[in-house]
Amino acid sequence: MNKLHPLKINSRKLSWEDNQPHSLDYDDRFFQANVIDETQEVFITANNLKDRWQNLEKDNFKIAELGFGFGLNFLITAKFWHEHNLNNKKWLDYVSIDCFSLNIEDFKKIVKNYPLLKEYGDELVLNFPIECNGFTRIDFPKFKIRLTLIINNVDDALVSLVGNDNNKFDAWYFDGFDPSKNISMWSPNVFSNINLLSKENTTFGTYTAAGFVRRGLEENNFNVSKVKGFGNKRHRLQGVFSKKDKTTQLELTPKKVAIIGSGIAGTCLAYKLANQDISVDIFDKKKDLNLNPWAAMYPKFSLGLDPRSDLLVQGYLYAHRFYTKVLSGYKNTGILFLNNGEDRDSWIKRILKLDRDDLFVKLTADEINTQNKVSQDYDGIKINIGGCISIEELNKALMQHENINFISEQNFLSYKLQDGIKLEFDNGKTFNGYTHLVLCSGGSLQSLIPKIGLKHGAIAGFDNKLLKNIQYPINNNGYVLPECNGINWAGSIYSNDEMNTGDSINYQNIIEKNNHLLIDEDISHIKSRWIGTRASLPDYLPVTGAIEKEKVYALGGLGSRGLSLAPLLAETIMNEICNIPSPISQEVKEAISPLRFND
Ligand SMILES: Cc1cc2nc3c(=O)[nH]c(=O)nc-3n(C[C@H](O)[C@H](O)[C@H](O)COP(=O)(O)OP(=O)(O)OC[C@H]3O[C@@H](n4cnc5c(N)ncnc54)[C@H](O)[C@@H]3O)c2cc1C
Ligand SMILES: C[S@@+](CC[C@H](N)C(=O)[O-])C[C@H]1O[C@@H](n2cnc3c(N)ncnc32)[C@H](O)[C@@H]1O
Q: pLDDT tens for residues 313-369?
């Protein structure tokens, strides 16, 4: 199957009988009517999960499933995990692959048939992912479960996991339709990638007893048993991976993590680590952080079929879910792009070809003007999800966590790997005893990653009654944001020269970039200003990952998209440190590696 844009949805063909789906794509049923008993026997008991969970020494248990379907195995496992996870302390990581995304209406219809799963189904509906291809991470803190959904054909999905030791699983569910109807889920290629993603004592369960499946798994280091099948099936297979592997010894628990920089990257990461019960010291050279007072998420999705495109979509959707949960002030207003010229027109046409009426709405100039009580001439496209937040407010909300210790006015100089990690600051102070260090120091990362370039800039806050009814961010060459505390922020200036408060800055530039909404006289309506710096790389991708021996990491280069990228990238680093499967593909991970510019 050719790679699809992350937002181009491939829909299933289904027929229904008694609210149960039948696949017309594979001419097979998804599960039997007594699916709860079937899943218990074929996957949960076959993998000996009850005993293994009762004696679990690690912080998390990792299941991978081939064939997410409508998520019933997931819900049944979630229920079983929740009932057997002593003191609700450990986490279940459930990674599941399917070539079709999950449609909410289908899901609701099916889950209604199983009242026992209601609590878990309701929680999934509350956190329902916007349909997209590739990786989606959803957390269910109530049940201590992380679901990583990978919408892709099985071959590419497995490859996107290989190469990261955190993606070695404890148990497999092979649920890819009857092999006689769908050979693609049971190919030699699939078995050899399963081999690479398994470790000593990894187990599997499946309902099939096909001889070639048995041989395929045996050739890939599994000891396979043929046992009595479920219901009217004569046999099924289960087994254990036998090859010894050094990854089991590498699972170190992080104890104390230091973060340099308390911008959006550093605080998102601190919050995520703190929620894993890790103690975090976060340092900043400044006393008063002076963070962006009102910033918009930036959904200018790339239309390529490359890691950048994947990251922009996945980062954006993840950020939207994250802010919805952690920030009461976050409003999903949507974001508008005006059709202001040839380039924008061509981008809009390509976006509309994705056929996502749920996400993109074309608006006429009249509709835009009526909704926002403004007067301008362009039509445009509205992205239905996204909005504005105050980075300052987010910072406060995230830093409240009791596991986070904020240490201000400490200008970080260097680190040493001795007795854990030791930090040195320019005032002569040292701090030590850290298991991990993450550098989230924005522009200062340039000293370690010289390819980072800096663009300084400013935004201005206008008090203009003609802008008071703007309902969502409106992008032209610049942007104007809905009112916050009596002012409408507009942006933005880009400059190679450093800017300081008190410098004379050409705010006329912001008026020119927003000449559909602002006029020259608005210069006198500027009530507030904010100055900052953007750090970015020549390939317009951020940096996220280890820079030294899986102990020292960098997270930055977020350019103009700090809001859209920081939550997912912080999750990526947290997962890497805590031995959790990655929320992004290996392809994206390599594309954003801080080491990618090294010779
Ligand atoms: C004018 C302007 C408007 C913008 N508007 C938007 C917008 O609307 N939406 C959006 O998504 N993005 C916007 N951005 C971009 C956004 O601000 C950045 O992407 C974001 O700030 C990057 O976050 P960060 O945490 O990586 O770095 P930073 O915010 O730069 O934070 C780095 C922190 O590290 C600290 N630090 C640095 N060196 C040291 C050291 N040696 N020791 C200790 N501490 C140190 C700094 O004091 C700072 O607090 C805008 C940027 C500018 C300039
Ligand atoms: C039997 S169903 C899974 C049922 C599911 N476990 C549940 O609980 O609802 C098999 C699934 O495998 C998926 N599938 C089939 N071939 C695939 C392939 N080549 N790559 C990825 N997924 C595939 C189908 O879309 C289907 O959803």
A: 999 999 999 999 999 889 999 999 999 999 999 999 999 999 999 999 999 999 999
Tell me if 300 CB under 6 Å of ligand 1.
Answer: no
Cα-to-centroid distance, 30 and ligand 2 (Å): 8
Pocket around ligand 2: residues whose beta carbon is below 6 Å from it?
A: 30-31, 67-73, 97-100, 153-154, 175-177, 182, 184-185
Integer Cα distance of 543 and 537 in angstroms: 8
Q: Report the separation in Å between the CA atom of 18 and the middle of ligand 1, taken as the mean of its atom positions.
A: 54
pTM of the predicted protein model: 0.97
pLDDT of residue 323: 97
Ligand nearest to the CA of 509: 1
The string over 304-334, giving b where at least 16 C-beta atoms fall within 10 Å of a residue's C-beta and e elsewhere, is: eeebbbbbbbbbbbbbbbbbeeebeebeebb
* Nearest atom within ligand 2 for CA of residue 75: 8
Rounded-to-integer distance, Cα 97 and Cα 69, Å: 9
Token couple for 243: 């090859």
- Measured in Å, residue 174 CA sits from the centre of ligand 2 at 9
Helix or strand run (H / E) with residue 29: strand 28-29
Instruction: Read off the tokens for 445.
Output: 């990362």
Amino acid at 528: S
Distance (Å, whole) CA 295 – CA 386: 11
Please give the pLDDT value at position 557.
Answer: 98
What architecture does CATH give domain 14-247?
3-Layer(aba) Sandwich (3.40)
Q: Can you say whether the dihedral through the CA atoms of 303, 470, 319, 490 is positive or negative?
A: positive
Q: Quick one: pLDDT at residue 247?
A: 55
The two tokens of residue 386 are 């996204």
| Cα dihedral 498/504/506/508 (nearest 10) | 150
Atom of ligand 1 nearest to the CA of 267: 25
Name which residue sits closest to atom 22 of ligand 2, judged by CA: 98
Q: Which two tokens stand for residue 170?
A: 């404890």
Q: What is the pLDDT of residues 180-211, one digit of tens each?
A: 999 999 999 999 999 999 999 999 999 999 99
| CATH 1.10.220.30 is right for the domain spanning 335-384+453-536 | no
Pocket perturbation via mutation, ligand 2, pick of 39, 65, 68, 117 by most ligand atoms within 8 A of CB: 68
Question: What is the CATH architecture assignment of 256-288+403-451+540-591?
Answer: 3-Layer(bba) Sandwich (3.50)
